[in-house]
């Protein structure tokens, strides 16, 4: 059995902007990915609202610094055959990442380095890595959301290219979520039920191809 760890933020956790709660388990993209891959795979969801690539958020109780918590996840779930990293949305906030795709790229580089250098048990191989660039933001009428992320709409459009550079440099795979899904107009950066399902379905074939290459 192949183990796939999905490491991300609220887009992986399944935040539902319409209810301010969580999408049902069966429509979250890691669950849909599991269903599409079948019983020969174990897909582990590891999403946390507000998680960044490597930046602190001192306004939250949970540790949202993805670089600090990733080693715990790697140690907990090993052996891992593939880790899917979908982060960067929260790096677009000025108070938790600088608000630019450049900082998100630096953070993604750090996460990839952690995965590739973590001291796994000697009987286990280093996991393969699939970087998923989040879909781009859209403008909304909500004042608080505009204050939080309105400045970053253009920067969010640069994430896919930024992550492609990381993938090329470190020998990873990359997938642009914006090619298969779009964010909700409610808040401009989360996924509704249909789009989180669509992402899970779209990732099935890329994940299979990664394993087929060996």
Q: TL;DR?
A:
GO terms for molecular function: hydrolase activity, acting on ester bonds. With 214 residues, this protein is α/β, with parallel strands linked by helices.
Write out key terms for the chains shown.
single chain, 214 residues, alpha/beta, Rossmann fold, 5-stranded parallel beta sheet, two-stranded antiparallel sheet, 7 strands, 40% helix, globular, hydrolase, SGNH_hydro, SGNH_hydro_sf
Explain what you see.
Residues 6-185 form the SGNH hydrolase-type esterase domain. InterPro entries: SGNH_hydro, SGNH_hydro_sf. Keywords: Hydrolase. The chain has 214 residues and is α/β, with parallel strands linked by helices. The protein has a single domain, classed as Rossmann fold. Helices cover 40% and strands 15% of the residues. The chain has eight helices and seven strands, in the order βαββαβαβαβαααβα. The strands form two sheets. It has a five-stranded parallel sheet with strand order 4-1-5-6-7, sandwiched between helices. Strands 2-3 form a two-stranded antiparallel sheet. β2 (15-16) and β3 form a beta hairpin. α2 packs across α8 (193-213) and α3 (66-77) packs parallel to α4 (101-117). The model has no long low-confidence stretch (mean pLDDT 95).
């Amino acid at each position: 059995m192949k183990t796939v760890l999905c490491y991300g933020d609220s887009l992986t956790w399944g935040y539902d902007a319409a209810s301010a709660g969580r999408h049902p388990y069966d429509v979250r993209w890691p669950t849909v990915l599991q269903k599409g891959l079948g019983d020969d795979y174990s897909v582990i969801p590891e999403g946390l609202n507000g998680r960044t690539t490597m930046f602190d958020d001192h306004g939250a109780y949970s540790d949202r610094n993805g670089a600090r918590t990733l080693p715990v996840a790697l140690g907990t779930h090993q052996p891992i055959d593939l880790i899917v990293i979908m982060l960067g949305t929260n790096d677009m906030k000025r108070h938790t990442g600088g608000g630019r795709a450049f900082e998100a790229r630096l953070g993604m580089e750090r996460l990839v380095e952690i995965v590739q250098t973590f001291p796994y048990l000697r009987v286990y191989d280093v996991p393969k890595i699939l970087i998923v660039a989040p879909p781009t933001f859209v403008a909304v009428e909500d004042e608080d959301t505009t204050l939080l992320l309105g400045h970053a709409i253009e920067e969010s459009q640069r994430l896919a290219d930024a992550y492609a550079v990381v993938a090329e440099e470190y020998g990873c795979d990359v997938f642009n979520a914006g090619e298969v899904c779009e964010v909700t107009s409610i808040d401009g950066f989360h996924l509704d039920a249909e789009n989180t399902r669509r992402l899970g379905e779209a990732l099935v074939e890329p994940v299979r191809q990664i394993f087929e290459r060996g």
